[in-house]
Amino acid sequence: MIGRRRFVSIAAGAGLSALIGGNAKGAPSGTPLYRWKGVAMGAAASIAIAHENAAALVERAQAEISRLEAIFSLYRTDSALSRLNAKGRLAAPPPEMIELFALCDALHALTGGAFDPTIQPLWKLYAESLAVGTSPSDREIEQALAKTGWRHVVADSNEVAFTTPSLAVTLNGIAQGYISDKIAALLRSEGVSNVLVDIGEIVALGHQPDGTGWRIGIADPSNPGRARTYRRLANSAIATSAPLGTVFDTEGSVGHILDPRTGRPAGRWRQVSVIAPAAARADGLSTAFCLMEEPDIRRAARGLQVELVR
After folding, report:
1. In angstroms, rounded to a whole number, what is the distance separating the alpha carbons of residues 260 and 263?
2. Cα 136-139-143 angle, rounded to 5 deg
3. Could you tell me the residue range of the domain that residue 237 belongs to?
4. Tell me: the pLDDT tens digits for 93-111?
5. Between the N and C ends of the chain, which has fewer C-beta atoms within 10 Å?
6. What is the pLDDT of residues 234-287, one digit of tens each?
7. Cα diameter, the chain
8. Angle formed by the axes of helices 279-289 and 175-189, to 10°?
9. Reported pTM
10. Angle at CA 55, nearest 5°, toward 50 and 58?
């Protein structure tokens, strides 16, 4: 598999640089920018904050990221999600899983099934087939598709269970946004008013020191190293998805966003960006919108800002 999300990186450097020389609320004048860079959910992550206790706050944020990865990561065999997939049920699920599954429920309905976290069996089929240079056959796609379906996931505070065998869930299309939201909320609870959080998707908390929104660049899908356009964000989030952001094949032609209704790779839009009050919603919708026609997208995105690139 080639280049995870290499086409969909938001050019956050443009926004983060605006913090330099500025202050977060409660920080003394001249407080230097503190910037953390790391990896979360298998992707690059960063936090930029100007605060007198920035190092301690970021350390708390890192601990929270690790805690949430232990719930949602498919890269960890001991995560709650990996254990659910292995056994088909999980007793006493973490409340964060129930919260996120409830949002998945809402987005699945809102998008007419285009957002469906049970896509994992299909994703695995494509990844394994194309890794050895072959394409999945129609029969293999049909068989994998038969193992999917969000309707087969039953969740409450006592248990999450799959009602059909061989089902598996991936939250890679929404968990990064959810974790970004949680880290922003943690920092807000500690009195931080102005910060940019990027745990795969971006949350802009507060404003730039001059009172304007954070300037965030959206990558050019034809040249991911260059921002194609910019947006100003204040107390909002942005997520961008592109079918070729991750590819299964060495030629870079088979993208990672698969349609749970057909079992085929997406291809309607080269890139979709969504600005919403919360990154989890923006994250899930940007993924689903790659599979949907524009009138359906506009209906599902009422009140949100959406940018479509063919």
Report:
1. 5
2. 95
3. 1-310
4. 999 999 999 999 999 999 9
5. C
6. 999 999 999 998 999 999 999 999 999 999 998 789 999 999 999 999 999 999
7. 65
8. 160
9. 0.91
10. 90
DSSP strands (E only) in 59-189? 89-91, 153-155, 159-162
CA distance 289 to 275: 13
- Tokens 């001249």, located at residue: 30
Structure-block tokens of residue 54: 């920035």
Structure-token pair, residue 256: 């990672």
Query: How many whole angstroms separate alpha carbon 188 and alpha carbon 164?
Result: 41
Q: Is the pLDDT of residue 23 over 70?
A: no
Q: Which two tokens stand for residue 51?
A: 């605060």
Mean of the pLDDT values across residues 163-192?
97
Asked whether 123 and 170 are in contact (CB, 8 A), the reply is yes
CATH number at residue 243: 3.10.520.10
Provide the domain count of the chain: 1
End-to-end CA distance of the chain: 23
The phi and psi torsions of 11 (rounded to 5 degrees) equal: -75, 70
pLDDT band at 209 (very low <50, low <70, confident <90, very high): low
Give which of 172, 187, 77 is closest to 127, Cα–Cα: 172
Taking alpha carbons only, the member of 73, 50, 55 closest to residue 179 is: 73
Closest CA to 127 of 295, 2, 18, 273: 2
92: left (phi over 0), alpha (psi -120 to 50) or beta: left
